[in-house]
Amino acid sequence: MSPSGIIIPRRLRAAAPGWTATADVIVVGSGIAGLTTALRLRRRVARVLLVTKTVLDEGSTAWAQGGIAAVMSPDDSPEEHIHDTLVAGVGLCNVEAVRTLVNEGTDAVWDLIAIGADFDRGETGKISLTREGGHHRDRILHAGGDATGREISRALIAALNRVRDDPGIEVIEHALVIDLLSNGDGGVCGVTLHVIGEGQVDGVGAAHAPAVVLATGGLGQIYASTTNPAVATGDGMAAALRAGAELADLEFVQFHPTVLYLGEGSSGQQPLISEAVRGEGAFLVDAEGVRFMQGQHPLADLAPRDIVARAIIARMRETGTDHVYLDCRHLGADFLEQRFPSIVERCRELGFDPATELLPVAPAQHYASGGVRTDLRGRTSLEGLYACGETSCTGVHGANRLASNSLLEGLVFARRIADDLTRRLAAGELPDPSPVEVQSDATEHPALIRGKRRVAVQRAMTAGAGSVRSAASLAATAARLGELAAADDGKKGGPKSWETTNLLHVGQALTLAAALREETRGGHVREDFPDRDDENFLHHTVIRRAADGQLTVATDPVPPENLIGLGLDGSHRTEEHHERLP
């Protein structure tokens, strides 16, 4: 690995732990990944501790509108779902991870239904399926029209509430994980966390366990505008990075093409217009009413998200505007209100009626395809540390996530993590936790930047490492983040400061990865390198913190055959596969 010159401390500045807890497994996060892991581990291990930063249903899962993708129809096939995922990932998917996702996904969804998830059904009682960008078949299950994530979250929390009295599982809400605890062998054996005056414990504490599962969601709040909730501050990625775990593919950030444009200067969590709206027939037009996706991709308005987002950015530049429009009017008020009740209600609250007028839309940050690097069992590069969901990088998404694969990934790999931990703990493969006190040295002072500097981090990331990047913009962002890192005033920390420092650390790693990838691929767009370069950049960018505190970078090549037959290498689909597509 090559050193970068960027120093990341081992830990955040926080008070010494004033209380302790123990468990067999600590699960951090309460989205689909965290809840599924915790529920599947219950009764398999003696004690599971589930911690979440606010309350159980405040994570990104509850905000997912479109749905969950799975092969549920005889007209579909695993091969087609795999193919669509690989095409969207632009050559950087881990093919085995994709096969795992798709082949285990159908059973995982049926198990979700079995615990109470109520997906929309047609008049015959069959589950309704639709499609989104990049899919060639109807394979998206949805609930409440456009409230799929909230229904999945409801069902999982209801299942958890049914076993709240079980002494084998404990839930701590309002708990922000600060850092990972290390044992003498360099593995992870617990966390430090801060509980904000809720429950039996308060302040900073330490929870010890042979295994920690990070399921803390994404990094959306690193940008000024995002579809992510306020809790998405990259906490799990940052803690893993400080502990020395490998992070991969951070440069591939998905900007959702159709986020309701609320005017210049609007920031924070923005209203998403689900891709499923285009799946039902809505289309994009520019300020002159011209449809501009025809000819851009065979799927036109339902092309993969990076292609649509890039086309929107190009059209905005051509026309000198800061948004385009989504035309839903022909779908009619009755259909829109029935199929997309939440979206319609939110649009009308903000003064837009999708049934009668064009909706102004522009790309905004939506999803992190990279994260803490894992294998197919969810294991990271540090013994005892697992990661799942958007926090992780399983290799499923490659350079760009296929629509509605995120919920499926959290579900499938959570099950795999629970199964692996059950076996390893039973076999005694994971030692009892024995934390080693982290000693500071000249290069490793506990870090903290004030919470009020969050806007500065967001502005720097949006300006230089946002939807369109260049060598100059990334250098400016790196310099600004360096200035902010040097602004540590030595004062005591707190939740807002810890979150902001997490955003800074992840931002530094992301900016570094983006500067090194001199090409355009998937969610990574370089205006100074507008073409994909398979000769030099068919690899994963892997970043970790070394013993001296420096971020180090390595590349992990992927086989060129990943491109064959995907239409990415100039070849075409086989005739057999082509004939099966509509």
List the helices and strands and how they pair.
Blueprint: E1 2-7, E2 20-22, E3 25-28, H1 32-41, E4 48-51, E5 68-69, H2 78-88, H3 95-114, E6 129-130, E7 140-141, H4 148-161, E8 169-172, E9 175-182, E10 188-195, E11 203-208, E12 211-214, E13 225-226, H5 235-243, E14 247-248, E15 253-260, E16 268-269, H6 275-279, E17 283-285, H7 305-319, E18 324-327, H8 333-339, H9 341-349, E19 359-368, E20 371-373, E21 385-387, E22 392-393, H10 405-426, H11 454-465, H12 471-485, H13 495-516, H14 534-537, E23 539-545, E24 550-557, H15 575-580
Parallel strand pairs: 2-11, 3-4, 3-12, 4-8, 12-21, 13-16, 20-22
Antiparallel strand pairs: 1-24, 5-7, 6-7, 9-10, 10-11, 14-20, 14-23, 15-19, 17-18, 18-19, 23-24
Helix pairs in contact: 1-4, 1-10, 2-3, 3-10, 5-13, 8-9, 11-12, 11-13, 12-13
What can you tell me about this protein's structure?
- The longest helix has 22 residues.
- It contains 15 helices and 24 strands.
- The strands form six sheets. A six-stranded mixed beta sheet has the order 1-24-23-14-20-22, with helices on one face. The chain has a five-stranded parallel beta sheet with strand order 8-4-3-12-21, covered by helices on one side.
- It folds into three domains: 126 residues, Methane Monooxygenase Hydroxylase, Chain G, domain 1 (Up-down Bundle); 254 residues, FAD/NAD(P)-binding domain; 114 residues, Flavocytochrome C3, Chain A, domain 1, CATH 3.90.700.
- It is α/β, with parallel strands linked by helices.
